[in-house]
Design brief:
By secondary structure, this protein is mainly α. It contains 9 helices and no strands.
């Protein structure tokens, strides 16, 4: 089916992304729709394939969408609503008396093609519901889930009082200490016409006095 050739790659990308979300209800939905699309695009006009199609439709129709986002739930609700009548049509064909003879008729081939076309249209509507592709929706969900997980991790981190730069950190260097360092910094910051060169980077291990030196220089230049 021609238009499913454009839909299946989008669903495949959504499936690849959904595995990282970790939301139990989402993955079965995407997998179910992709499985149905693949089956419709490859199925033959025989009783076995038609019975498999009916089972695939019923599995998708009965999926629980309670854990899905509102957008995904709306997509699935619209899809399953349309698929209900199609599933009944499949069931009627499978149970039709003298099925094997009927399979050979033109009427059967037309009806099975109509069913496939209807399913394909439903899947396309699901995939691009509201002019937003399912791939984009899953990508947005992934970002939101990552943000929630990050906030949760940060909220559970144990906090401790700062060992350095705490309330008792000296405001300025003691008299007679760091004289050469402070003089060199002040000279660098006040000398020369090029203001872009008046940049100082202090480096050193934690607790070595970088903040105190910076405060001292700031108090001198204030």
């Amino acid at each position: 089916m021609g238009f499913l050739e454009n839909v299946i790659p989008v669903l495949s990308l959504a499936k690849a992304s959904v595995t990282s979300i970790g939301v139990p209800a989402v993955e079965p939905v995407i997998n179910g729709v992709l499985e149905l699309a693949t089956m419709v695009s490859t199925m033959r006009s025989n009783k076995e394939d038609l019975a498999k199609l009916e089972n695939c439709l019923n599995d998708l129709i009965t999926l629980d969408a309670s854990g899905c986002s509102e957008d995904l739930k709306n997509r699935l609700t619209a899809l399953t609503s349309d698929l209900n009548s199609i599933s009944l049509a499949c069931k009627a064909l499978v149970e039709k008396p003298r099925f094997n003879r009927f399979v050979m008729s033109r009427d059967y081939k037309d009806r099975i093609q109509e069913i496939k076309n209807s399913i394909g249209s439903c899947i396309r509507n699901f995939t691009f519901y509201g002019n937003i592709s399912i791939e984009e929706l899953i990508a947005c969900m992934t970002v939101k889930v990552d943000e929630v997980l990050t906030k949760e991790i940060l909220s559970n981190l144990k906090t401790v009082s700062a060992r350095y730069n705490a309330d008792n950190t000296p405001e300025v260097c003691m008299q007679g200490t760091r004289v050469n360092t402070i003089t060199e910094i002040v000279t660098r910051l006040t000398g020369g016409p090029d203001e872009s060169q008046r940049i100082i980077m202090l480096s050193g291990s934690a607790g070595s006095g970088k903040s105190t030196v910076a405060k001292t220089v700031a108090s001198i230049l204030a």
